[in-house]
Protein backbone atom coordinates (compact mmCIF):
# COMPACT_ATOMS: atom_id res chain seq x y z
CA UNK A 1 0.00 0.00 0.00
CA UNK A 2 2.95 2.32 -0.61
CA UNK A 3 3.69 4.10 -3.81
CA UNK A 4 6.60 6.41 -4.45
CA UNK A 5 7.76 8.32 -7.47
CA UNK A 6 10.75 6.18 -8.40
CA UNK A 7 12.77 9.21 -9.43
CA UNK A 8 12.43 10.80 -5.99
CA UNK A 9 12.18 7.86 -3.67
CA UNK A 10 13.19 7.34 -0.92
CA UNK A 11 12.41 11.01 -0.26
CA UNK A 12 8.71 10.92 -1.03
CA UNK A 13 6.44 7.98 -0.36
CA UNK A 14 2.67 7.96 -0.52
CA UNK A 15 0.77 5.55 1.67
CA UNK A 16 -2.62 4.42 0.46
CA UNK A 17 -4.57 3.30 3.48
CA UNK A 18 -6.52 0.24 2.60
CA UNK A 19 -9.14 -0.82 1.86
CA UNK A 20 -9.47 1.18 -1.33
CA UNK A 21 -11.76 -0.18 -3.97
CA UNK A 22 -10.87 1.79 -7.08
CA UNK A 23 -7.69 1.51 -9.11
CA UNK A 24 -5.30 4.44 -8.66
CA UNK A 25 -3.92 5.80 -11.91
CA UNK A 26 -0.14 6.17 -11.85
CA UNK A 27 2.54 7.44 -14.17
CA UNK A 28 5.05 4.75 -13.16
CA UNK A 29 5.37 1.40 -11.56
CA UNK A 30 8.36 -0.33 -10.12
CA UNK A 31 9.44 -3.81 -9.16
CA UNK A 32 6.16 -5.71 -9.08
CA UNK A 33 3.68 -5.54 -11.93
CA UNK A 34 1.72 -7.66 -14.36
CA UNK A 35 1.45 -6.94 -18.06
CA UNK A 36 0.18 -8.97 -21.03
CA UNK A 37 2.88 -10.41 -23.29
CA UNK A 38 1.35 -8.72 -26.35
CA UNK A 39 2.17 -5.31 -24.85
CA UNK A 40 5.84 -6.30 -24.49
CA UNK A 41 5.76 -7.27 -28.16
CA UNK A 42 4.32 -3.87 -29.09
CA UNK A 43 6.36 -1.61 -26.79
CA UNK A 44 9.55 -3.67 -26.60
CA UNK A 45 11.42 -5.25 -23.74
CA UNK A 46 13.39 -3.52 -21.00
CA UNK A 47 16.28 -1.36 -22.20
CA UNK A 48 19.06 -3.38 -20.61
CA UNK A 49 21.72 -1.47 -22.55
CA UNK A 50 20.98 1.98 -21.12
CA UNK A 51 19.56 0.67 -17.84
CA UNK A 52 21.44 -2.54 -17.00
CA UNK A 53 20.78 -1.98 -13.29
CA UNK A 54 18.14 0.09 -11.58
CA UNK A 55 14.94 1.71 -12.88
CA UNK A 56 14.61 -0.16 -16.18
CA UNK A 57 10.94 -0.71 -15.30
CA UNK A 58 10.43 3.06 -14.99
CA UNK A 59 11.87 3.62 -18.45
CA UNK A 60 9.55 0.88 -19.70
CA UNK A 61 6.58 2.64 -18.02
CA UNK A 62 7.54 5.88 -19.80
CA UNK A 63 7.32 4.05 -23.13
CA UNK A 64 3.94 2.62 -22.12
CA UNK A 65 2.70 6.13 -21.34
CA UNK A 66 3.90 7.43 -24.72
CA UNK A 67 1.96 4.62 -26.42
CA UNK A 68 -1.19 5.66 -24.56
CA UNK A 69 -1.40 2.83 -22.06
CA UNK A 70 -2.81 3.50 -18.61
CA UNK A 71 -0.94 2.28 -15.54
CA UNK A 72 -3.02 1.55 -12.47
CA UNK A 73 -2.33 0.47 -8.91
CA UNK A 74 -4.87 -2.15 -7.82
CA UNK A 75 -5.12 -1.70 -4.04
CA UNK A 76 -6.49 -5.20 -3.44
CA UNK A 77 -3.42 -6.81 -5.01
CA UNK A 78 -0.73 -7.91 -2.58
CA UNK A 79 2.95 -8.18 -3.36
CA UNK A 80 5.68 -8.95 -0.89
CA UNK A 81 9.02 -7.45 -1.86
CA UNK A 82 11.41 -9.01 0.59
CA UNK A 83 14.21 -6.47 0.57
CA UNK A 84 16.15 -5.17 3.55
CA UNK A 85 16.32 -1.42 4.24
CA UNK A 86 18.47 0.54 1.81
CA UNK A 87 21.26 1.11 4.33
CA UNK A 88 21.65 -2.67 4.70
CA UNK A 89 21.67 -3.16 0.92
CA UNK A 90 24.18 -0.31 0.49
CA UNK A 91 26.71 -2.09 2.69
CA UNK A 92 26.90 -4.92 0.20
CA UNK A 93 26.36 -2.81 -2.91
CA UNK A 94 28.99 -2.96 -5.58
CA UNK A 95 30.16 0.21 -7.28
CA UNK A 96 28.25 -0.56 -10.48
CA UNK A 97 24.91 -0.56 -8.66
CA UNK A 98 25.84 2.62 -6.79
CA UNK A 99 26.87 4.24 -10.11
CA UNK A 100 23.43 3.61 -11.67
CA UNK A 101 21.43 4.68 -8.60
CA UNK A 102 21.30 8.42 -9.38
CA UNK A 103 22.54 8.26 -12.97
CA UNK A 104 19.38 6.57 -14.15
CA UNK A 105 17.16 8.97 -12.21
CA UNK A 106 18.78 11.90 -14.03
CA UNK A 107 18.32 10.30 -17.44
CA UNK A 108 14.68 9.46 -16.68
CA UNK A 109 14.03 12.96 -15.30
CA UNK A 110 15.27 14.43 -18.59
CA UNK A 111 13.08 12.04 -20.58
CA UNK A 112 10.08 12.98 -18.43
CA UNK A 113 10.25 16.68 -19.39
CA UNK A 114 12.67 19.64 -19.38
CA UNK A 115 10.70 21.28 -16.57
CA UNK A 116 10.82 18.13 -14.48
CA UNK A 117 14.58 17.85 -15.05
CA UNK A 118 14.99 21.41 -13.80
CA UNK A 119 12.90 20.65 -10.71
CA UNK A 120 14.75 17.40 -10.13
CA UNK A 121 18.20 18.97 -10.55
CA UNK A 122 17.67 21.90 -8.21
CA UNK A 123 15.39 20.42 -5.55
CA UNK A 124 15.50 16.62 -5.54
CA UNK A 125 19.06 15.79 -6.57
CA UNK A 126 20.73 17.79 -3.76
CA UNK A 127 18.59 15.95 -1.20
CA UNK A 128 19.43 12.61 -2.76
CA UNK A 129 23.14 13.48 -2.74
CA UNK A 130 22.96 14.39 0.96
CA UNK A 131 21.11 11.12 1.60
CA UNK A 132 23.83 9.12 -0.18
CA UNK A 133 26.62 11.05 1.55
CA UNK A 134 25.08 10.02 4.86
CA UNK A 135 24.89 6.42 3.70
CA UNK A 136 28.56 6.51 2.62
CA UNK A 137 29.44 7.90 6.05
CA UNK A 138 27.31 5.29 7.85
CA UNK A 139 28.78 2.35 5.93
CA UNK A 140 32.30 3.85 6.02
CA UNK A 141 32.81 3.44 2.28
CA UNK A 142 34.06 6.35 0.18
CA UNK A 143 34.11 4.21 -2.97
CA UNK A 144 30.30 4.07 -2.71
CA UNK A 145 30.16 7.89 -2.74
CA UNK A 146 32.67 8.11 -5.61
CA UNK A 147 30.51 5.74 -7.66
CA UNK A 148 27.39 7.81 -6.88
CA UNK A 149 29.14 11.02 -8.02
CA UNK A 150 30.50 9.39 -11.19
CA UNK A 151 26.96 8.24 -11.93
CA UNK A 152 25.60 11.76 -11.51
CA UNK A 153 28.18 13.11 -13.95
CA UNK A 154 27.43 10.34 -16.46
CA UNK A 155 23.67 10.93 -16.09
CA UNK A 156 24.03 14.56 -17.16
CA UNK A 157 26.37 13.60 -20.02
CA UNK A 158 24.05 10.92 -21.41
CA UNK A 159 20.64 12.32 -20.60
What do you see in this structure?
This protein is mostly helical and 159 residues long. Helix content is 53%, strand content 6%. It has helices at residues 37-43, 56-66, 86-91, 95-112, 114-139, 142-158, and strands at 2-3, 14-15, 24-26, 71-73. The strands form 2 sheets. Strands 1-2 form a two-stranded antiparallel ribbon. Strands 3-4 form a two-stranded antiparallel sheet. Helix 4 (95-112) runs antiparallel to helix 5 (114-139). The chain is globular and about 45 Å long. The relative contact order is 0.15.
What brief labels describe this structure?
159 residues, mainly alpha, two-stranded antiparallel sheet, two-stranded antiparallel ribbon, 4 strands
Annotation, overall tally of beta strands: 4
Distance between the termini: 32 Å
- What is the element string, with H for helices and E for strands? EEEHHEHHHH
Contiguous low-pLDDT stretches (5 residues minimum) are none
How many helical elements? 6
Shape: globular
Please tell me the overall pLDDT: 83
Largest sheet features = 2 strands, antiparallel
Q: What fraction of residues sit in β-strands? A: 5-15%
The computed structural class is mainly alpha
Approximate helicity band: 40-55%
- Order of the strands making up the biggest sheet: 1-2
Rg, rounded, reads 16 Å
Amino acid sequence: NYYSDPLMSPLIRKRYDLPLKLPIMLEFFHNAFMIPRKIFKEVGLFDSYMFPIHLSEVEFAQRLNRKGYIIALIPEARVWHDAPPYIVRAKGMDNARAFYTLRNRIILARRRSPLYLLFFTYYVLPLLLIYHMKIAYDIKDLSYLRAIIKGVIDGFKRG
